[in-house]
Design brief:
Layout lengths: L1 H61 L2 E2 L3 H10 L3 H11 L2 H7 L2 E15 L4 E12 L9 E12 L2 E9 L5
Antiparallel strand pairs: 1-2, 2-3, 3-4, 4-5
Helix pairs in contact: 2-3
């Protein structure tokens, strides 16, 4: 029996010496997946923030077009757009003279913005924004109106661009 007691004491001592290494391996084994999850969550939050920021910028651009600076203003809209929306504003920019004749001044700002959904695999998102603005065409006095925009955005080479912009309901 003395022999078996020596073996178990040696085994216990060896386990106690290895315990810090075993605990460290266990912590690393648990920590790496946790760190990867946290990193993925931060990346997803960053993408969501980027979508909402791009949507805010584009609605701000869409709601701030002055006949005196229309070519530059429309250029900002075009820079934040893609697809058919971009093409429509490229065509509209060729008619800057008509905007100048109407002496149209659109001013507005985003009140709130939110992300409706984001599909990471397809790099597409939809955002909804509330905005207020005025339109004083031909120098007429403008009253404040409230708008609800729904935008579809696409990730194009790392930039979120608006592919579709629609006003929901009647501005009030």
């Amino acid at each position: 029996m003395a022999r078996s007691a020596v073996r178990s004491d040696g085994l216990i001592a060896a386990l106690l010496r290895a315990l810090p290494l075993i605990l460290l391996a266990g912590l690393v084994g648990l920590g790496v997946p946790l760190a990867l999850t946290v990193s993925h969550d931060h990346q997803r939050d960053d993408r969501r923030d980027a979508v909402v920021a791009a949507a805010r910028a584009e609605v701000t651009n869409l709601m701030n077009i002055d006949y005196r600076t229309a070519a530059r203003d429309l250029g900002r809209v075009i820079a934040g757009a893609t697809g058919d929306l971009r093409q429509n504003y490229v065509k509209l920019r060729t008619h800057v003279q008509a905007i100048a004749q109407d002496q149209s001044v659109l001013t507005g700002s985003v009140v709130s913005a939110g992300l409706l959904w984001l599909h990471d695999r397809e790099d597409v998102a939809r955002a909804v924004l509330s905005a207020t603005g005025t339109d004083s065409t031909g120098g007429a006095s403008a009253s404040v109106r409230h708008y609800r925009w729904v935008l579809t955005l696409r990730d194009v080479d790392g930039r979120w661009l608006v592919s579709d912009a629609a006003l929901e309901g009647v501005p009030s």
